[in-house]
Amino acid sequence: MKLSKSRPITLDNIKTMLSGAGFEEENDFSFLGVWEGLINKYKRENRVGTADNYSWSLNSFRKIIGEVNGFKIDKNTIKLWDEGMRNGIMLNGKLEGKISDATRGMYLRTCRVVWNECIKRGYLPEESYPFSNKDNDLVSIPRGKKRQQSYLTIEEMTQLYHVFTEKRYPETWTKEYTERAHDSLGLFLTQYLCNGFNLADAGRLKFNRTYFAEGGRAFEFLRKKTSETSNGMSVVIVPIIKPLQVILDEIGAKPAKDAYVFPQIFRGIEDETIRRKLTVQENSNIKDRVIRICKEVLGWEKKPSGTWARHSFATNLKHLGVEELYISESMGHSLGNNITAGYQDMYPLETRFEYNSKLLNLEEEKPDIDVDSMTPEQMKEMLKKVLGQK
User: Fold this and answer.
1) Does the pTM exceed 0.90?
2) Predicted confidence (pLDDT) at residue 358 exceeds the cutoff of 80
3) How far apart are CA 372 and CA 30, in angstroms?
4) Looking at the domain 154-359, which fold is it?
5) For the purposes of burial, counting CB atoms within 10 Å of the CB of 145, is it exposed (0-12), middle (13-18) or buried (19 or more)?
6) How far apart are CA 125 and CA 194, in angstroms?
């Protein structure tokens, strides 16, 4: 009775209704409607970046393929779209739709999610699945390029840290640009020292309960990218090692309960759409300024970006022999079904300090002290310093 009021009574529609799929929105009952439904879902969840990605891929599909009625879609349709993204199509005498392989892969992956959603709802049969990187008769999704060279070594990161602490910038730069470059370099180094987190996480980082409970020795946050998934096991703990504290003192806000650590990123704006744009712009600014510092201050030809900071964290610790479970957990990677691990303090804070302190090579020079010639007062003062007493 419910189906007869809105849809044709067919075996497929009956099967879909009995499987529990709903008909809340008119346009849901089509392949492109499911695609649009996912976009709206991500928008409601404030997953702005994901929604944009799905919108761009849908626009590409419609530009090359056009509209698709219902679920009349198969591997040949996807192949035609894939070919159009590879080589472009002629529209009004102009070549349109051609994109890079990286973007093509990203768009095909969103389409794959839509296809799987349609299978789950009973709209498409599993045997019609059009994607495979092994079957040449199906559509192969290009893999992202490997990033073996997209990182900076510990020594290189240490040199950048010295540039920051010494404020060693060209005298030809204007005062305003030097200040912006200094702030950008600090944020880049912070991304590296804060377990390779991205700028969206940096913008949301707060002086929360954990920070004060640990005496200002650690940050705790929920990684935005994985907090949107269902397992919820993406809590990241960052030990505030000495060089990170130096950067915080320079470009961070003063600690206050639930205050943002880097308010300059979002500028007090709470709207997620605007935050997304600010993050993209700030990522671009950091990349441009750090590249210029590398070239004009250190004489490098390398062009690091924010993703290099994350890759550098993982690569450098791996090269040092740090266990991969620590690296993965520290970066907020999903723990899958390992529920026990999610609730355990897998690594004590002191262990985190031990590992993260290896991210920079800052061996302190030992002072040349003649203990035998020291007065009792001098020895007393030295002992206080060793014990950390005032």
Assistant:
1) no
2) yes
3) 87
4) hpI Integrase; Chain A (1.10.443)
5) exposed
6) 45
